[in-house]
Specification:
- The structure is a homotetramer.
- Chain A has about 325 residues and is α/β, with parallel strands linked by helices.
- Chain A folds into two domains: about 5-115, 3-Layer(aba) Sandwich (Rossmann fold); about 125-285 and about 310-330, Dihydrodipicolinate Reductase, domain 2.
- In chain A, about 40% of the residues lie in helices and about 25% in strands.
- Chain A has a seven-stranded mixed sheet.
- In chain A, a hairpin with a 2-residue loop joins β11 and β12 (about 250).
- At the A-C interface, β7, β8, β9, β10 and β11 of A face β7, β8, β9, β10 and β11 of C.
- β12 of chain B pairs antiparallel with β13 (about 260-265) of chain C, so a sheet runs across the interface.
Chain lengths: ~325, ~325, ~325, ~325
């Protein structure tokens, strides 16, 4: 067995803990440092999964004991930490989004493109078995030319108002996953339209954000892409995708806890609600994301979404917000600065 | 258009009315006589669908105004009426079963075999689109050699005690449809085992009958056949069939009123219960049965189940009853007297 | 039984023949006149289903032998025929669209509103058991407040180029059904955005039309509506609808010919393609549409879509075309002139 | 954290390796000894998952370094090893069946009953999420009184002839899982009927065994139980269960690799074949089985199937073989010696 890749985890909140668990469960990875200004959080993670503890990321980079970092700290710190990783010659897997401000992303862009290390973006859904299978089968030509892509993505329940307030808005915070999913199938998107609504949440309305949106986009090869979002869903996590092509269609249904169906005098074929929680729904995806990140470091051929992918998703989010506000379709060019 | 086939309907109870409706809706058929000792019943049907009225079947046969009769009178009259139809040179479509007593059936058997007219048995389920499609695809070799046939057949609710008492028992009254369905796929059945239980109905138990049975049978080519019956089903008519072959399996699901599914916090993919009533569930089958009967008369090549099929189903029912009572598998030979 | 409603059929093309069949199969209706300038067409229909024959609609209205007309002639004749029906005091069921030109529709609008007779528009899909059931359950509050409505509607194959050329474009010809379906759930729509693409058909592109479109709309109560169309679908008629509400979701799946599923080494749960033909797919809907039209005449309380509904659908189609062309969301006001 | 339970693994064949993996993945367990007369097998497992190596089980028991053993050696050794575990005061999780000879099982029975240690039988399917969920919901009364239990269980492909020859026959080797599953729902079974067939395999026929069987059983409370088995299945592992009760039915569908469905001109709703391999299909069940075994040791309250359950399944298998051979239903009494 080759030596495991040594990993420093930066940020030990909910998503950081998920990564810690993934690292611990991946024989090819070893958690060597855990960093969080909230030092108790770092200590708790380190106790359970190993690693030295610090409040300062600089100490991690300077330690010479990490081959890679997983960046799971607040969004505002991402750009600086990626920058530091590049400077330290350390690979980075960074949670989405890179930043809420496209200017800050653009500033780092040339350096990220030139970097020798892997900069991977945490668009975990690409690693979901359902979406991954469809992506491969579309690429293999199973449905001919891809003509229409439809993504339905609804969260079980909205985040607290305090989170929504600093989230950057639904397009940059929630839809950004779907923008990346759209680009997983249609990398070159050229036009964005969006409509937003306040259907149910006064909290979300009060901070000037939408709780429900529909985005339609065009690809460079005449693909029509539709994203339908809601911040709530009474029946659990609703995550479906439909790839419609010239000779067939592939559809990813939701994931149910079991295959058990009930039949009674009031209902038949009835199943228990879908998963409530994104960590549970995408557990496999988070693990596979890390496994592929490690494998990419080893082979030098990363398949994870890149800094460019993170930037493209943010550009699309900004365009959607502009369109929803102005009522005009917005042209985008993802290929240039 | 050729002249319609003139039909006399004998029996105007629930099932007789279904046939009257089918005849009225079939351009190639004409209802010319309606017969029932309960003359008001006959009159009511004739008013709605046409035809002369009589209480005496002999008048129908003697009229010279019927090419065929549909026999929907009580079971005890079937043998005599088929006999009369043969004597009159009139085709007959007779409801199942031919009789509750195999001896009476056997007496008529040689004459029925030699008859120039079509004697069709009312095993309507062969004309169900689901079962018919599977039958054709199995015959076309889509699943290789048929190895296992599984029929699940549950009625929404038991008939009244008064009916059960004279029904001849669950095997001859209810399972008889499934025996014929089994023979639709495996005509030559050689062995029958059965187990019966009193799971829920004191009424049925009190008349010495079972409310739930399982029958297993062997075909001449090593097919294993399973029939699972219940006299009740909380979720509506449960009528499924599974044909398992060496290279594939074909499965007929239940028929739902619509394709609408509901998703909520307590259930997902939930649909309304299946149909409650056999006439509704098998509406298409009853119509197609008549259409094919008429077509068979016209072309001289009937595809409807025959007197032999009716006799075979009764032999299997008797064997099942014997097996359920004695605990022994019963060999049968459907090919000889 | 009350006297049947006497019906004159105007137009005996494909859709006219469907209506003739529905009329013949509806005891409460009687086909008394059949009209088509192509007189052989009229004669053929009359031979099969009854009625006198003429090439001139005026003769039908003047006959005093029709209580109602079914208008199934070319679109360009609809306005004049509705006008004539109103003048003759004859009820009318008119195929969609009223006209391709909203100005002609608007001219007739005040007269249609004031008319004593029923002017029903042939939006047959409202009578589909699937969509009808969802509509009723939404109205009954089963899913709380309706927040998002998603309609996926794909035809098996495009009409011939000659038809497309005079069709008025995909929005007025095909999407118009979906606009009405949207209004079946959300009558008051206030904004329309649309994107069109030429994904597969050079024929359609050559006449300046789209083969694929996505339309998003807003309702007055913050509903977000999405319509996804394609002029082709390899797997048959794709007609789904999803009503997403605050407490649940209702979904209409496609209609399959049977419930049979196949399991083999290359696939499981596999079913035969959906219906290829709109008449087959919507056979029940066409029949129910006529039954309700007749019932509405009888009771004076029509539930069929109205002239207003026909006008509203055309306004939405025009708005969609404008939006797809200009890249701007278009505000609409369906309530005023 | 409490000290992990120290486990000795006896037998390092296919199933032994599965247990080694489960032990390694269970924090509460530690693999301390690995035993196999084929010492290279033991060494290989120990290298990957830890533990000392021996060819002699006696050394494991004598070591004082195991709290429990997992017995995954050939069937013929099970009785002696369970016996040794009891003598050594060591808990045991033993693969099914206990033995092929009910007399040997009966000899050990009183001692096993009196043992202070946990003797758990490896009927892993009880730990499958699907079957477990149904079992709990039936117990919770969701479907009223259980009336009919139907188990369909087909292996992807038969084992090699060499294995079949010493397997003890399909009832003791394959159906034994379904006998235990039946008893998971209906512990007290009182009568067994069975029919066997040679449908496809000359190899299996040549060793005097069946490749396809149907077993029907009665429970003490009038439950009718049906088991349908085949040694092959073209579409992968077929493992379904239907619990039919007085007020509802619960159905466990097969487990598919993903939720992706394909729609094309030849098929719709088509999914990839089910899993081919029992380890993959029951991966979760094997892990949960071990977790519960450990938990049972800790709490003193084991929920795993017991020696009694292993004995009962063998009695049912023997009865089924007798019934299939004699054509007679066989009464069984699982409660006495």
């Amino acid at each position: 067995m080759t030596k495991p890749v040594r990993i420093g985890l930066i940020g030990t909140g909910r998503i950081g803990q998920v990564h810690a668990m993934s690292i611990a469960g991946t024989p090819a990875a070893e958690l060597t440092w855990v960093c969080d200004p909230f030092i108790e959080g770092a200590q708790k993670v380190a106790e359970q999964y190993g690693g030295k503890v610090t409040a300062d990321p600089a100490e991690v980079f300077a330690s010479g004991e990490v081959d890679a970092v997983v960046i799971a700290s607040p969004t505002a710190t991402h750009v600086d930490l990626i920058n530091a990783a590049i400077d330290a010659g350390v690979h980075a897997l960074c949670e989405k989004p890179i930043d809420l401000d496209i200017n800050r992303v653009n500033e780092l862009w040339p350096k990220a493109k030139a970097a020798k290390v892997t900069i991977a973006l945490g668009f975990n859904r690409r690693f979901d078995p359902q979406f991954g299978e469809i992506n491969q089968r579309v690429a293999a030509g199973e449905i001919g030319k891809l003509e229409q892509l439809t993504i339905i993505s609804r969260d079980p329940a909205p985040a607290p108002k305090a989170y929504i307030e600093v989230s950057g808005g639904i397009f940059r915070d929630m839809t950004i996953h779907d923008f990346d999913m759209a680009r997983f199938f249609v990398p070159n998107i050229v036009e964005v339209s969006a409509q937003g609504a306040n259907s149910f949440s006064d909290d979300i309305k009060s901070v000037g954000d939408f709780d429900s949106v529909v985005v339609t986009m065009k690809g460079a090869h005449n693909e029509l892409i539709t994203i339908i979002n809601s911040r709530h869903s009474s029946y659990g996590y609703d995550q479906r995708l439909e790839a419609f092509g010239s000779t067939g269609m592939l559809y990813a249904h939701n994931v149910a806890p079991t295959t058990v169906a009930k039949y009674s005098g009031v209902e038949v074929e009835s199943r228990k609600p879908y998963m409530e929680f994104f960590l549970e729904r995408y557990e496999h995806a988070y693990r596979q994301e890390l496994v592929d990140f490690i494998e990419g470091i080893r082979t030098g051929k990363s398949v994870n979404p890149t800094f460019d992918d993170g930037r493209a998703a943010l550009i699309l989010a900004d365009a959607a917000l502009e369109s929803a506000t102005t009522g005009k379709a917005v042209k985008v060019d993802l290929s240039t600065y």
